[in-house]
Amino acid sequence: MSAVRTAARASRLPLALRDSTTMVRRNLLHARRYPSLTLNLLLTPVMLLLLFVYVFGDVMSAGLGGGGRSAYVAYLVPGLLLMTIGSTAIGTAVSVSMDMTEGIVARFRTMAIHRGSVLVGHVVGSVLKAVLSVVVVGAVAVAIGFRSTDATALEWLAAFGLLVLFATALTWIAVGMGLGAPNAEAASNNATPLILLPLLSSAFVPVEGMPGWFQPVAEYQPFTPAIETLRGLLLGSGIGHDGWLAVGWCVALTVLGWFWSTASFARDPK
Protein backbone atom coordinates (compact mmCIF):
# COMPACT_ATOMS: atom_id res chain seq x y z
CA MET A 1 0.00 0.00 0.00
CA SER A 2 2.83 2.40 0.80
CA ALA A 3 4.27 1.86 -2.69
CA VAL A 4 0.87 2.68 -4.22
CA ARG A 5 0.59 5.87 -2.18
CA THR A 6 4.12 6.88 -3.16
CA ALA A 7 3.32 6.33 -6.83
CA ALA A 8 0.11 8.34 -6.50
CA ARG A 9 1.96 11.24 -4.94
CA ALA A 10 4.59 11.11 -7.69
CA SER A 11 1.91 11.20 -10.36
CA ARG A 12 0.30 14.25 -8.75
CA LEU A 13 3.55 16.23 -8.62
CA PRO A 14 3.64 17.20 -12.34
CA LEU A 15 -0.02 18.25 -12.11
CA ALA A 16 0.71 20.42 -9.06
CA LEU A 17 3.70 22.05 -10.77
CA ARG A 18 1.74 22.69 -13.96
CA ASP A 19 -1.25 24.19 -12.15
CA SER A 20 0.97 26.26 -9.84
CA THR A 21 2.84 27.68 -12.84
CA THR A 22 -0.48 28.58 -14.47
CA MET A 23 -1.65 30.33 -11.29
CA VAL A 24 1.60 32.29 -11.00
CA ARG A 25 1.17 33.43 -14.60
CA ARG A 26 -2.42 34.41 -13.85
CA ASN A 27 -1.32 36.43 -10.82
CA LEU A 28 1.31 38.32 -12.81
CA LEU A 29 -1.08 38.99 -15.70
CA HIS A 30 -3.66 40.29 -13.23
CA ALA A 31 -1.07 42.72 -11.84
CA ARG A 32 -0.18 43.88 -15.36
CA ARG A 33 -3.79 44.50 -16.28
CA TYR A 34 -4.56 46.34 -13.04
CA PRO A 35 -1.32 48.15 -12.15
CA SER A 36 -2.95 50.94 -10.14
CA LEU A 37 -3.05 48.94 -6.90
CA THR A 38 0.65 48.04 -7.08
CA LEU A 39 1.66 51.56 -8.09
CA ASN A 40 -0.35 53.15 -5.28
CA LEU A 41 1.26 50.88 -2.69
CA LEU A 42 4.72 51.44 -4.20
CA LEU A 43 4.22 55.20 -4.04
CA THR A 44 4.20 55.21 -0.22
CA PRO A 45 7.82 54.10 0.36
CA VAL A 46 9.07 56.23 -2.53
CA MET A 47 7.36 59.35 -1.14
CA LEU A 48 8.65 58.62 2.36
CA LEU A 49 12.16 58.17 0.96
CA LEU A 50 12.07 61.52 -0.82
CA LEU A 51 10.39 63.27 2.13
CA PHE A 52 12.83 62.09 4.77
CA VAL A 53 15.89 62.66 2.60
CA TYR A 54 15.14 66.09 1.16
CA VAL A 55 12.99 67.61 3.93
CA PHE A 56 14.28 65.99 7.13
CA GLY A 57 17.63 64.62 5.95
CA ASP A 58 19.94 67.26 7.43
CA VAL A 59 18.11 67.40 10.75
CA MET A 60 17.85 63.62 11.10
CA SER A 61 21.53 63.10 10.24
CA ALA A 62 22.49 65.43 13.11
CA GLY A 63 20.76 63.02 15.48
CA LEU A 64 22.84 60.18 14.03
CA GLY A 65 26.11 61.92 14.74
CA GLY A 66 26.43 64.05 11.64
CA GLY A 67 27.52 63.09 8.17
CA GLY A 68 24.93 65.13 6.33
CA ARG A 69 22.14 64.03 4.06
CA SER A 70 24.17 61.29 2.39
CA ALA A 71 24.72 59.56 5.74
CA TYR A 72 21.01 59.60 6.45
CA VAL A 73 20.25 58.18 3.00
CA ALA A 74 22.49 55.22 3.81
CA TYR A 75 20.75 54.74 7.15
CA LEU A 76 17.23 55.11 5.73
CA VAL A 77 17.27 52.93 2.63
CA PRO A 78 17.35 49.44 4.27
CA GLY A 79 14.21 50.23 6.27
CA LEU A 80 12.41 51.61 3.23
CA LEU A 81 13.23 48.48 1.23
CA LEU A 82 11.53 46.31 3.85
CA MET A 83 8.64 48.76 4.08
CA THR A 84 8.22 48.27 0.33
CA ILE A 85 7.73 44.56 0.94
CA GLY A 86 5.08 45.35 3.56
CA SER A 87 3.29 47.64 1.11
CA THR A 88 3.29 44.95 -1.57
CA ALA A 89 1.85 42.46 0.92
CA ILE A 90 -1.19 44.70 1.39
CA GLY A 91 -1.91 44.32 -2.31
CA THR A 92 -1.63 40.55 -1.89
CA ALA A 93 -4.28 40.54 0.84
CA VAL A 94 -6.61 42.61 -1.34
CA SER A 95 -6.03 40.37 -4.38
CA VAL A 96 -6.73 37.18 -2.41
CA SER A 97 -9.88 38.67 -0.91
CA MET A 98 -11.14 39.72 -4.34
CA ASP A 99 -10.61 36.19 -5.65
CA MET A 100 -12.54 34.75 -2.72
CA THR A 101 -15.47 37.18 -2.88
CA GLU A 102 -15.85 37.47 -6.65
CA GLY A 103 -16.42 33.75 -7.19
CA ILE A 104 -13.34 32.73 -9.12
CA VAL A 105 -12.06 30.50 -6.31
CA ALA A 106 -15.46 28.82 -6.07
CA ARG A 107 -15.12 28.05 -9.77
CA PHE A 108 -11.59 26.73 -9.29
CA ARG A 109 -12.92 24.32 -6.65
CA THR A 110 -15.14 22.68 -9.27
CA MET A 111 -12.29 22.21 -11.74
CA ALA A 112 -9.74 19.42 -11.93
CA ILE A 113 -6.82 21.48 -10.67
CA HIS A 114 -4.53 21.09 -7.71
CA ARG A 115 -6.17 23.03 -4.86
CA GLY A 116 -2.89 24.23 -3.40
CA SER A 117 -1.88 25.81 -6.70
CA VAL A 118 -4.23 28.75 -6.06
CA LEU A 119 -2.32 29.74 -2.94
CA VAL A 120 1.06 28.96 -4.51
CA GLY A 121 0.19 31.23 -7.43
CA HIS A 122 -0.60 34.13 -5.12
CA VAL A 123 2.49 33.62 -2.97
CA VAL A 124 5.06 33.14 -5.74
CA GLY A 125 3.55 35.92 -7.86
CA SER A 126 3.46 38.30 -4.91
CA VAL A 127 7.05 37.55 -3.92
CA LEU A 128 8.16 38.28 -7.50
CA LYS A 129 6.25 41.57 -7.42
CA ALA A 130 7.77 42.43 -4.05
CA VAL A 131 11.29 41.84 -5.38
CA LEU A 132 10.55 43.98 -8.44
CA SER A 133 9.17 46.74 -6.20
CA VAL A 134 12.32 46.59 -4.06
CA VAL A 135 14.40 46.98 -7.21
CA VAL A 136 12.40 50.08 -8.20
CA VAL A 137 12.73 51.69 -4.77
CA GLY A 138 16.41 50.73 -4.69
CA ALA A 139 16.92 52.41 -8.06
CA VAL A 140 15.32 55.60 -6.73
CA ALA A 141 17.59 55.40 -3.67
CA VAL A 142 20.70 55.05 -5.85
CA ALA A 143 19.52 57.99 -7.97
CA ILE A 144 19.37 60.24 -4.89
CA GLY A 145 22.75 59.18 -3.51
CA PHE A 146 22.62 55.77 -1.81
CA ARG A 147 25.84 53.78 -2.15
CA SER A 148 26.88 50.41 -0.76
CA THR A 149 30.64 50.41 -1.30
CA ASP A 150 31.61 48.29 1.71
CA ALA A 151 29.38 45.27 0.94
CA THR A 152 31.03 42.19 -0.54
CA ALA A 153 29.43 39.95 -3.15
CA LEU A 154 28.56 37.44 -0.43
CA GLU A 155 26.88 40.16 1.64
CA TRP A 156 24.88 41.30 -1.38
CA LEU A 157 23.74 37.71 -1.90
CA ALA A 158 22.79 37.41 1.76
CA ALA A 159 20.89 40.71 1.58
CA PHE A 160 18.94 39.48 -1.44
CA GLY A 161 18.18 36.21 0.33
CA LEU A 162 16.91 38.09 3.38
CA LEU A 163 14.64 40.24 1.22
CA VAL A 164 13.17 37.17 -0.51
CA LEU A 165 12.72 35.35 2.81
CA PHE A 166 11.05 38.38 4.40
CA ALA A 167 8.80 38.83 1.38
CA THR A 168 7.77 35.17 1.56
CA ALA A 169 6.94 35.48 5.26
CA LEU A 170 4.83 38.63 4.89
CA THR A 171 3.13 37.26 1.79
CA TRP A 172 1.90 34.15 3.59
CA ILE A 173 0.59 36.34 6.42
CA ALA A 174 -1.12 38.60 3.89
CA VAL A 175 -2.72 35.60 2.17
CA GLY A 176 -4.18 34.52 5.50
CA MET A 177 -5.50 38.03 6.09
CA GLY A 178 -7.08 38.10 2.65
CA LEU A 179 -8.74 34.71 3.10
CA GLY A 180 -10.22 35.76 6.43
CA ALA A 181 -11.59 39.11 5.22
CA PRO A 182 -15.21 39.48 4.09
CA ASN A 183 -14.28 41.95 1.33
CA ALA A 184 -11.32 43.72 -0.24
CA GLU A 185 -11.66 46.82 1.94
CA ALA A 186 -11.53 44.72 5.10
CA ALA A 187 -8.50 42.87 3.73
CA SER A 188 -6.70 46.15 3.17
CA ASN A 189 -7.51 47.27 6.71
CA ASN A 190 -6.40 43.93 8.16
CA ALA A 191 -3.05 44.21 6.40
CA THR A 192 -2.39 47.82 7.43
CA PRO A 193 -0.03 46.77 10.28
CA LEU A 194 2.37 45.45 7.64
CA ILE A 195 3.12 49.05 6.66
CA LEU A 196 2.63 50.62 10.10
CA LEU A 197 5.13 48.39 11.90
CA PRO A 198 8.11 49.78 9.92
CA LEU A 199 7.13 53.26 11.12
CA LEU A 200 7.47 51.95 14.70
CA SER A 201 10.84 50.29 14.07
CA SER A 202 14.44 51.41 13.63
CA ALA A 203 13.79 52.34 9.99
CA PHE A 204 13.97 56.10 10.56
CA VAL A 205 15.80 56.57 13.88
CA PRO A 206 17.84 54.24 16.12
CA VAL A 207 15.97 52.42 18.85
CA GLU A 208 18.33 53.96 21.41
CA GLY A 209 17.09 57.44 20.49
CA MET A 210 13.44 56.63 21.22
CA PRO A 211 11.71 57.19 24.59
CA GLY A 212 12.44 54.40 27.04
CA TRP A 213 8.81 53.29 27.27
CA PHE A 214 8.59 53.01 23.48
CA GLN A 215 11.82 51.11 22.84
CA PRO A 216 10.34 47.61 23.50
CA VAL A 217 7.67 48.30 20.84
CA ALA A 218 10.36 49.03 18.27
CA GLU A 219 12.75 46.30 19.37
CA TYR A 220 10.47 43.27 19.81
CA GLN A 221 8.91 43.09 16.35
CA PRO A 222 9.97 41.49 13.06
CA PHE A 223 10.96 44.63 11.16
CA THR A 224 13.69 45.96 13.46
CA PRO A 225 16.03 42.91 13.41
CA ALA A 226 15.46 42.51 9.66
CA ILE A 227 16.27 46.20 9.09
CA GLU A 228 19.40 46.05 11.25
CA THR A 229 20.55 42.89 9.47
CA LEU A 230 19.99 44.38 6.02
CA ARG A 231 21.67 47.61 7.13
CA GLY A 232 24.70 45.68 8.35
CA LEU A 233 24.95 43.68 5.12
CA LEU A 234 24.64 46.68 2.82
CA LEU A 235 26.76 49.12 4.82
CA GLY A 236 29.37 46.75 6.20
CA SER A 237 28.45 47.40 9.84
CA GLY A 238 27.98 44.85 12.60
CA ILE A 239 24.94 42.60 12.66
CA GLY A 240 25.30 40.79 15.98
CA HIS A 241 22.33 38.69 17.02
CA ASP A 242 19.95 40.55 14.71
CA GLY A 243 20.70 38.15 11.84
CA TRP A 244 19.43 35.12 13.74
CA LEU A 245 16.45 37.07 15.03
CA ALA A 246 15.54 38.19 11.50
CA VAL A 247 15.73 34.66 10.12
CA GLY A 248 13.78 33.33 13.11
CA TRP A 249 11.02 35.88 12.61
CA CYS A 250 10.84 35.05 8.89
CA VAL A 251 10.59 31.31 9.51
CA ALA A 252 8.02 31.74 12.28
CA LEU A 253 5.83 34.07 10.20
CA THR A 254 6.09 31.80 7.16
CA VAL A 255 4.99 28.76 9.14
CA LEU A 256 2.20 30.69 10.86
CA GLY A 257 0.99 32.17 7.57
CA TRP A 258 1.12 28.82 5.80
CA PHE A 259 -0.95 27.04 8.45
CA TRP A 260 -3.38 29.96 8.66
CA SER A 261 -3.80 30.22 4.88
CA THR A 262 -4.12 26.50 4.15
CA ALA A 263 -6.59 25.98 7.01
CA SER A 264 -8.73 28.91 5.87
CA PHE A 265 -8.62 27.83 2.23
CA ALA A 266 -9.53 24.24 3.10
CA ARG A 267 -12.76 25.28 4.79
CA ASP A 268 -15.80 25.03 2.56
CA PRO A 269 -17.26 28.43 1.68
CA LYS A 270 -20.38 29.41 3.57
UniProtKB/TrEMBL annotation:
It is a multi-pass membrane protein. Residues 36-268 form the ABC transmembrane type-2 domain. Pfam families: ABC2_membrane. It comes from the Bacteria. Its main location: membrane. Keywords: Antibiotic resistance, Cell membrane, Membrane, Transmembrane, Transmembrane helix, Transport. PROSITE patterns: ABC_TM2 (PS51012). It is found in: Cell membrane; Membrane. The chain crosses the membrane at residues 34-56, 76-98, 119-144, 156-179, 191-207, 243-266. Belongs to the ABC-2 integral membrane protein family. PANTHER family: NODULATION PROTEIN J. This is Transport permease protein. The lineage of its organism: Bacteria, Bacillati, Actinomycetota, Actinomycetes, Kitasatosporales.
